[in-house]
C-alpha cells in the first residue's frame, strides 16, 4: 500500500517554511537548537498551521468538577469550546473527549477573532472529523447557543470585519460554511448544561 504523503512545517529552523519530504525537513532542523516542526496530512492544514505560528502540544485538558447526579453518560462524546482575549482578540478553539478531557484537536490562536466564531469553527471541526471517520454515534457537546444557531442556518452572522490580520479566520469560516452546505449532519449535537454540570470540559478557564 502506498504511503500517504505528508507535509512538514518548520516554524523555527535554518529556513522556516513548508516542506514536502521528511528529508527536506531534516535539513532545516538538524543541529538547530530548539527547532520547532510538525507533520500534517495535507498542504492546506500545513499552510494554516504555518500561518498560525508554533503552538506547544497540549496533551490533556483539566476537567471541571461535576457534582450533579442528573448528568448523562458522557462515554464516547466530544466537547468543544473557544476562547477570545478581547472582542475581537486572539481567538483559539479546541475539542476534547468529554469523559477524560484528553485533547483531540486545537487550532489557533488567530488574531482579531471572536469567541462566537471560535465556537462555530470548533463545532464544524468536530462534525467534519466524525463525518470523515464515519463515527456518527459520537455526540458533540457545545455550550454556545450562537454556534448552534449558525449551524442550523449553515451561515455565520457576524459583525466582525475582515482585515489582513484576521484573513485566515474568514478563510476558515468560508471553508466551514461550504462543508455545511455540502454535507448532511449525521452526528448528534447536544447543548451543554453549564448550570447543572459545570463548565464544559473543553473550557479554557479564562472567565
Describe, in plain words, how this protein is organized in 3D.
With 207 residues, the chain is α/β, with parallel strands linked by helices. Helix content is 32%, strand content 24%. The protein has helices at residues 22-29, 43-52, 115-133, 145-153, 167-182, 194-197, and strands spanning 7-12, 17-19, 36-40, 78-86, 89-97, 103-113, 140-142, 189-191. The strands form two sheets. It has a five-stranded mixed beta sheet, with helices on one face. It has a three-stranded antiparallel beta sheet with strand order 2-1-3, sandwiched between helices. The longest helix is centred in the middle third of the chain and has 19 residues, at 115-133. Residues 59-71 have low confidence and may be disordered.
Poorly predicted runs of 5 or more residues: 59-71
Structural class: alpha/beta
How confident overall, as mean pLDDT? 85
Strand content: 15-25%
Main-sheet strand order equals: 6-5-4-7-8
Major sheet summary line:
5 strands, mixed
If you compute it from the alpha carbons, what radius of gyration comes out, rounded to the nearest whole angstrom?
A: 18 Å
Kindly report the oligomeric state of this protein. single chain
The count of β-strands is 8
Query: How many DSSP helices?
Result: 6
**Share of helix, binned:** 25-40%
Provide the succession of SSEs: EEHEHEEEHEHHEH
Q: Distance between termini?
A: 49 Å
Shape: globular
